[in-house]
Amino acid sequence: MTRTVYTSPIKALSNQKFREFKDTFEDVGLLTGDVQIRPEASCLIMTTEILRSMLYNGSDAIRDVECVIFDEVHYINDAERGVVWEEVLIMLPAQVKIILLSATVPNTLEFADWIGRTKKKKIYVISTPKRPIPLQHFLYTGNSNKTSNELFMIVDANSKFLPRGYDAAVTAKKEREGKGKDAYGSKTHQSTSIKEEKNIWLSLIEMLRKKEKLPVVAFTFSRKRCDDNADQLGNLDLTTSTEKSLIHVFIQKSVARLKGPDRKLPQVSRIQDLLKRGLGVHHSGVLPIIKEMVEMLFGRGLVKILFATETFAMGVNMPARTVVFDSIRKHDGTSFRELLSGEYIQMAGRAGRRGLDPTGTVILLCKGNMPLMADLHKMMLCEIKLKKESKIMVTKYASIRKAEIISSWYNCIGIASYHHANKPLPAYNSDESYPR
Questions:
Q1: What is the separation, in whole angstroms, between the first and last Cα of the chain?
Q2: With left for phi above 0 and alpha for psi between -120 and 50, is residue 398 left, alpha or beta?
Q3: Cβ 88 vs Cβ 52: under 8 Å
Q4: CA 426, CA 435: separation in Å to the nearest integer?
Q5: What is the mean pLDDT of the chain?
Q6: Distance from CA of residue 54 to its chain's centroid?
Q7: Which of 51, 222, 314, 410 is the most buried (most CB within 10 A)?
């Protein structure tokens, strides 16, 4: 029996693809850190880390694998986890076919050249320069009912930056707050009070509701802030009586899968109240069954505002009409920094529903001082190329030997030096396979 393996960077995407695939195909299995469903299936869905473990352990299942599909392969650029993709690509047996999927790799030929040299195979590049749904980017400076319409476009659907929109946003904020030049991109990031936060969200949501821009994914870069943002909107109700009934029935069926005591967990009770009012929370601290409930209700359009961390953008097919950034600063495990262009584009790409919306709406909340125009331009419009610099440690040698791919390991040693030397790429003919 031959197998096909589909890998993704996160469990949420693996779970979603499992639900989709089993509706189309008969023999589908799922392997994540949480669950194992039909591991003997001919089509296996798993996280990339699971596939790496199977390669290291010399799993018998690998011998039957004919093709591996890597979704969100640009994750190979991740500072911490990117090495996982690199190792798996190198360790896969030569006979295994590879399909790499990504919507955010601008230097596809360069990346394909590295893959081709590593695997000693011809690589075919299929790409399109256009987004299915163009995006419009805005700054929001409102903080009350009186200022709820302070929404300023800074990038249009043709990806053109609009300095006038930026200047108008700064002027509106400056006139209201009386900060003069301090309204411009100061490096001091001011905090806002709980009351101010609540007023900002209420004014924004009311404006979006009037403009028919719901549902919304609101990206927030900490689990606590996700929970706090949802909890402080205790009086907000965005669902109709019919929608409440549908949500109630769905929740009852989902919760019935839990054991008796688990049905009374605080997290379960809390999410029921939020969901019935059209609010949702999605982050790594949420129980798996609750995540699944939130994802499915959001996919049906019954969750109107979803507060989520960055992982929700990693390929999960849950588009919204609008994406909101609570902030453009995040903690990367070492320090606080501004979002990288690739990170921003990945999350902003959740905006716009194919076949339903002519454009997607992306909004940045301007709570403290305004970001600099140059920083916004770089974040929104600059392309981040994949840079392959081998991070595989020599201590991995024994494991790679066990996986019987020594030749690929030696071939990998020259990867970093090859790209650092900026060696020109071979000529490319669109009618032929990429030459090796």
A1: 31
A2: alpha
A3: yes
A4: 7
A5: 84
A6: 25
A7: 51
List, for residues 249-301, the tens digit of each pLDDT value. Answer: 999 999 998 888 888 899 999 999 999 999 999 998 999 889 889 988 998 99
Q: How far apart are CA 213 and CA 224, in angstroms?
A: 26
Residue with tokens 């024994």: 398
Condensed to tens digits (0 to 9), the pLDDT of residues 58-111 reads 888 888 999 999 998 988 888 788 899 999 999 999 999 999 998 877 788 888
Half-sphere exposure of 96 (CA within 13 A, CB side): 25
Tell me the C-alpha distance between 354 and 218, whole Å.
Answer: 19
Going 109 to 111 to 115 to 120, the CA torsion angle's sign is: positive
Question: Edge-to-edge strands of the sheet including 3-8?
Answer: 36-37, 28-31, 43-47, 3-8, 65-70, 97-100
Distance CA 315, CA 347 (A): 9
User: Is residue 236 a contact partner of residue 277, using CB atoms and an 8 Å limit?
Assistant: yes
Please tell me whether residue 400 adopts helix, strand or coil conformation. helix
* Residue 85 backbone phi and psi in degrees, to 5: -65, -40
How much is the pTM? Answer: 0.76
Whether residue 215 is preceded by a cis peptide bond, meaning omega within 30 degrees of 0, is yes
DSSP 424: P
- Token match 């707050």: residue? 177
Task: Identify the sign of the CA torsion 196, 287, 69, 394.
Answer: positive
Q: What is the mean pLDDT of residues 114-131?
A: 88
